Amino acid sequence: MPVASPTDTKSELLEAAERLFAEHGIARSSLRAITREAGANVASVNYHFGSKEGLVKAVFAHRLEPLNRERLALLDRCLESAKGDPDLKCVLRALIGPALQMMRDREPGHKCFAQIMGRAFADPEERVRSILLDEFREVRERFTAVLAVILPQLSPEELFWRFHFMIGAMAHTAAGSFFVTRHSAGVVDPSEVEGMTLKLVNFLAAAMSAPATRSPRKTKKRKK
Amino acid sequence: MPVASPTDTKSELLEAAERLFAEHGIARSSLRAITREAGANVASVNYHFGSKEGLVKAVFAHRLEPLNRERLALLDRCLESAKGDPDLKCVLRALIGPALQMMRDREPGHKCFAQIMGRAFADPEERVRSILLDEFREVRERFTAVLAVILPQLSPEELFWRFHFMIGAMAHTAAGSFFVTRHSAGVVDPSEVEGMTLKLVNFLAAAMSAPATRSPRKTKKRKK
DNA sequence: GTCTATAGGTGGATAGAC
DNA sequence: GTCTATCCACCTATAGAC
Q1: How many other C-beta atoms lie within 10 A of the C-beta of residue B17?
Q2: Which of residues 115-174 of B touch A (CB under 8 A)?
């Protein structure tokens, strides 16, 4: 037999779920709506994925594994091409570029998944969080280790917080906030992903390179 | 008659809702759970707030109005104390400080609301978004105008994106991401709000001051 | 203002025919 | 593998007694 048809029910369900999760959120996308969107039967999700949770995990795994593999591959290329002295912007682009690129890709579902992922960082539902946490662990550890070498002036605590702030900016941007479409007043083009990525990398490179924060030793020091 | 008791049913409902919204999210907090938490009756929400949506709006209005008033007051103080030449960090602290301070305040509910607000920026539910959008509009316009004066080298487009990235970092931090508690490995103390605020302001001041991003004119230029 | 009881709807999951 | 029919838990909202 040939390879499985790319439009079989299981794939249709994955793509339909991705679209609806992006539009309405995971919790508010019912199995009935998903199966209707996929042109399949209500029982098909339980047949193919065991439960709604199984479907959610499948959607994340399907996109996050290639995404994180690409991040790590790009990081390796940064390390190779500049032996012992990796470039900060190269590393940041390896972390951020692949995620934002998903907002652009033509393949159906990709643009949507960037939104799902961006929102998942803020999702209060334990199961969604733990999926992202597991998938992201290796990426986090490897990038943190490299950044510690590039930015030796930062204490582990300060590096931790800067990484945290960086994730926030990235997630908010990947989520494609409503603010962009409603507040932009014609001044920006959210579909111009490459320019957006350049601006975010530029923004974060300056932020990560900032001098270490002085400890707030109650000395009431004046800034400026 | 004296002033209304501070522990009347309406206030109890507001505080109970805030706690549960922070812990489980708005959509997953049922009126049954909220009224049980408040020690009130299931019908009390509809009596006092008309509907669940009315309760949600009341929770947001109750916290966001004072929060945004404080932001604007602090911004005015930045402008006064340095006539014609406001300090960037002072302005950033006016925007960010009051929000992060909510994570610390002893008054019950405040810490929780920082989480709700942080997540609301990524919430796919239209009604939640529009509440935040309306409440945030004036703050956004005034801060953007002041930042345009402090950072004249930025085009409106670049300023727009930098403001966007900044909101992401702030919201993610205020939401008190699970990453902090699970990945910190004893290296940070999330309850140390003042140090966290200093670090975020320092991080963002460097980011906002970064040189304007070069336009990606297909010239395949090498960085570094 | 507060309560009980219930209406009216939607959710995930499954049994069993085909 | 796919479908229909159905179960049961849970939701918001309201009617009406107190």
Answers
A1: 29
A2: 118-119, 121-125, 129, 133, 140, 156-158, 160-162, 164-173
